[in-house]
């Protein structure tokens, strides 16, 4: 009996030893470890985590450090548009299930943003989880098909002028006939933009969009309003006024009085109209006389502020000279000094131009950008409106003084702007030989003066189109692109909308008088030199340019 008990104890011990031995040789499985994202391609290319201009059915490949569990992969993947809506897609696997191949099931919309990626819910075959989420931003390409039937270039130029002209004709303020600042401005009208509109009206008569009598009636209405109702300060108008009452609408708190630069754009346009309506009839004679009253009433010399050798931009009846903005070059204000020197009354001497505007030559540049030498102004030339506003009326061809050859200035400034967009150092989607032009315009949620040194990815059609006289080949290529390729989004009631960004898939729905006007006028200068010939025919302007030391075949 004792012997059997001993055997039983030995058996128990052996069984226990056997169990312990089994436990030590087969330990429990460890929990699954996380895994990592390794690489990606979009249509076979890797350029980071953001892709512009992709096709409608891009192939996105995401590679990870572990094989992915096929039956759970979709739980960890994301494909959605900018609004957060899910995009249906197909999924396949490569490289032993380490690479996921994702493609939309249907064509994606053009110029639309999407996100493709994996969340930390993505599961490997060993049940491990993705350590860090990955997201790939996609922007689809624009639709490269033509949106309108083909026209000859000449027909297209006429169409752009005619459609854009509607802004100044159909949308003019009903009481004053002046140009609204923008298409949402109500009673707010712009003095400088109205000057551009006057020149646009002259071009419209030349193109038979309206009759000479229709233009005469409208211009008389505008001039009568400016004469009898428009607030003036030492003969100068404010930047903005109420188109129904003529009262100042402040541009800013202290900018509630005279704006000499805006006034110069208005006078530039009125002198063009005066020269065009040269008939001996009562109405045309009266229009000329009324324009001369406004022209002679601007006290240019008073804006020297205590006889300084510089002109000042602003004066306020409440804040006097507090804005303290001397008008110095190089920028858009050459016309201000030319008219100040040309004025039959209240003119300024050459010393004001030399010491104030030209700063005795300090406005010179002389550096080369893209091997193109820029005579005047800031690096890369600044926004392109510098080459437009003054030269709507002043003909730069053959124009020279002690500081520059102005034909070289405006042409080279434009070519530098063009080359910057072609070179595209910031890789803004869409920039190139047919999509270029940086100037002041609306941008998403704001407004800025775009230039090569202030590039926010926004193109303004007015920049390239208004440069037609300087870069006819490059500008015409851009105009065709804007109309044929982007016209479904960019072309509407009053011609081209103000601006767009292919990089952001954004198109403005705004029109600005100061951007619409130069397009009409500079297309006309490109085609006939009409507006240039008219302003340069003014005897006062000829005298003023000569007094400032300019030489020109047009003097």
Structure overview:
This is Beta-glucosidase. Residues 53-123 form the SbsA Ig-like domain. Residues 1-20 form the signal peptide. Residues 325-539 form the Glycoamylase-like domain. InterPro entries: Glycoamylase-like_cons_dom (IPR019282), SbsA_Ig (IPR032812). The protein is an alpha+beta fold and 555 residues long. It folds into 2 domains: 37-140, Immunoglobulin-like (Sandwich), CATH 2.60.40; 153-547, Glycosyltransferase (Alpha/alpha barrel), CATH 1.50.10. Helices cover 35% and strands 14% of the residues. It has 15 helices and 20 strands. The chain has a 4-stranded antiparallel β-sheet with strand order 1-3-6-5, with no helix packed on it. Strands 2-8-7-4 form a 4-stranded mixed β-sheet, with no helix packed on it. A hairpin with a 2-residue loop joins strand 17 and strand 18. It is elongated. The N and C termini lie far apart (141 Å). The relative contact order is 0.10.
How is this structure best summarized?
Helix content is 35%, strand content 14%.
């Amino acid at each position: 009996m004792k012997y059997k008990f001993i055997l039983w104890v030995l058996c128990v011990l052996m069984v226990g030893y056997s169990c312990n031995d089994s436990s030590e040789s087969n330990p429990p499985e460890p929990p699954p470890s996380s895994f990592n994202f390794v690489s990606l391609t979009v249509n076979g290319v890797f350029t980071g985590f953001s892709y512009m201009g992709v096709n409608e059915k891009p192939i996105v490949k995401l590679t990870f450090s572990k094989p992915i569990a096929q039956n759970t992969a979709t739980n960890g993947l994301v494909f959605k548009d900018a609004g957060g809506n899910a995009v249906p897609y197909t999924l396949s696997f490569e490289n032993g299930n380490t690479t996921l191949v994702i493609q939309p099931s249907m064509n994606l919309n053009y110029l639309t943003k999407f996100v493709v990626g994996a969340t930390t819910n993505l599961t490997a075959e060993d049940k491990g989880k993705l350590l860090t989420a990955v997201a790939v931003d996609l922007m689809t390409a624009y639709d490269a098909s033509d949106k309108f039937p083909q026209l000859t270039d000449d027909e297209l130029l006429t169409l752009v002028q005619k459609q854009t002209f509607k802004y100044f004709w159909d949308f003019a303020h009903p009481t004053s006939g002046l140009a609204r600042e923008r298409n949402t401005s109500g009673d707010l009208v712009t003095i400088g933009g109205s000057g551009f509109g006057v020149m646009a009206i002259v071009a419209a008569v030349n193109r038979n969009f309206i009759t000479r009598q229709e233009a005469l009636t409208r211009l008389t209405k505008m001039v009568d309003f400016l004469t009898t109702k428009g607030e003036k300060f030492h003969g100068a108008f404010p930047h903005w006024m109420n188109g129904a009452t003529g009262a100042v609408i402040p541009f800013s708190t202290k900018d509630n009085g005279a704006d000499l630069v805006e006034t110069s754009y208005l006078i530039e346009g009125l002198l063009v109209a005066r020269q065009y309506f040269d008939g001996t009839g009562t109405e045309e004679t009266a229009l000329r006389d009324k324009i001369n009253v406004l022209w002679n009433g601007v006290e240019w010399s008073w804006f020297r502020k205590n006889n300084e050798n510089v002109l000042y931009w602003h004066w306020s009846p409440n804040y006097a000279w507090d804005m303290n903005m001397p008008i110095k070059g190089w920028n858009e204000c050459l016309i201000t000094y030319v008219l100040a020197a040309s004025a039959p009354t209240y003119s300024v001497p050459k010393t004001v131009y030399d010491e104030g505007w030209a700063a005795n030559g300090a406005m010179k540049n002389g550096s080369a950008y893209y091997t193109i030498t820029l005579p005047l102004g800031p690096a890369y030339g600044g926004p392109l409106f510098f080459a437009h506003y003054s030269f709507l009326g002043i003909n730069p061809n053959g124009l020279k003084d002690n500081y520059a050859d102005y034909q070289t200035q405006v042409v080279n400034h434009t070519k530098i702007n063009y080359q910057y967009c072609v070179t595209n150092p910031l890789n803004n989607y869409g920039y190139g030989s047919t999509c270029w032009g940086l100037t002041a315009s609306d941008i998403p949620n704001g407004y800025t003066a775009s230039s090569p040194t202030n590039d926010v990815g926004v193109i303004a059609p007015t920049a390239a189109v208004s440069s037609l006289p300087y870069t006819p080949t490059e500008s015409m290529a851009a105009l065709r692109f804007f109309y044929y390729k982007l016209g479904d989004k960019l072309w509407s009631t009053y011609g081209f909308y103000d601006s767009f960004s292919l990089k952001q898939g954004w198109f403005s729905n705004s029109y600005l008088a100061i951007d619409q006007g130069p397009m009409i006028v500079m297309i006309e200068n490109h085609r006939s030199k009409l507006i240039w010939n008219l302003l340069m025919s003014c005897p006062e302007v000829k005298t003023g340019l000569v007094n400032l030391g300019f030489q020109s075949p047009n003097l």
